[in-house]
Amino acid sequence: MPSKLNLNAAFFAFFAVCSLAISVPLLATLGEGATFFVEHDAKASDILLFAFGIYILPPVMLTGITLGIKSVINPSAANLFVSIAVGLLAALWAMSLALRAPTAGAIAVGLAFGGLATWGYISHPGVQSLVKIVGQISPIILIYFLVFTPVNKLVLPERVVLNGATGGAETPVVMIVFDELSLAGLVTPEGRIDAGRLPNFARLQRLSTWYREATTVSTSTHKAILAILTGTFPNDESLPVYSEYPHNLF
User: Fold this and answer.
1) Which DSSP string corresponds to 140-197?
2) Are 94 and 109 in contact (CB under 8 A)?
3) 135 C-beta neighbours (distance < 10 Å), count
4) Quick one: which of 33, 128, 164, 205 is 20 to 30 A from 150 by CA?
5) Which distant-in-sequence residues (6+ apart) come within 8 Å of 86 by Cβ?
6) CA dihedral 143, 129, 18, 29 (to 10 degrees)
7) CB atoms within 10 A of CB 21
């Protein structure tokens, strides 16, 4: 193992393995499931801060630890830390690719790949060069997340004109949605509201019109509420935001 620390190579190596093991799985999942940000009322600035934090913080922190080890101990120990960190993150990445395998199999694949990555990084300059190149092109992950996933509609939303309705009856209307409230938990085996366990729901039924067979268009909350508020079937390509559905009850 070389005693001289190549900090530049280590820096990009950390970006490479952190991107594969952390940024890609997390940003890919949240990119396709952008409703996570809608449900948490995240602004464009929040999404950008989150994405850049996920991408930048782990490799920067590892680089800082490497510098600390070099200063306190020696360059050889810092090189060893870099190799082990690369191997562990490579193992984590390999395990994420083998998730469909049994747990023991995924762990075995991860450990084997991590060990191979550590050995290759220590022994072969070509492996170090390859890892460095991966780190240099890793910003593609951020570009893909921010530009080519549904998150783009939140980061760069279309400008829309608010069309509020006025006039009409002045009778107040209140709509309450009990999310994930199971009908089976409200009724008796005969299909009536269980007045013994839930007297207030039973009273509400007596004072109301209960549509027993009514159901939502989806088991997903954001799609079901979207349909209620707009009167349209949700589109899998759209997000539940005003720019996508300007004609709604609000």
Assistant:
1) HHHHHHHHSSTTHHHHSPPP--------S----------TT--GGGTB-TTSSB-TTT
2) yes
3) 22
4) 164
5) 13, 14, 17, 117, 118, 121, 131
6) 40
7) 20
Please give the chain's pLDDT, 250 residues, in tens: 455 678 888 899 999 999 999 999 899 888 888 888 888 888 889 999 999 999 999 999 999 999 999 999 888 889 889 989 999 999 999 888 877 778 888 888 888 988 888 888 888 888 888 888 999 999 999 999 999 988 988 888 777 666 666 666 778 888 888 888 888 888 888 888 899 999 999 999 889 998 888 888 888 888 888 888 888 888 777 788 887 888 888 7
Whole-angstrom distance, CA of residue 154 vs CA of residue 174: 29
* Residue 247 per-residue DSSP state: S
**Token pair for residue 215?**
């159901």
Question: Distance between CA 192 and CA 84 in Å, rounded?
Answer: 63
Per the rule left: phi > 0, alpha: psi between -120 and 50, beta: everything else, 214 is beta
Residue 193 has φ and ψ, to the nearest 5°, of: -60, 130
DSSP 3-state of 231: coil
* Residues 135 and 90 sit within 8 Å (Cβ to Cβ): no
> CA 229 to CA 158: how far, in whole Å?
20
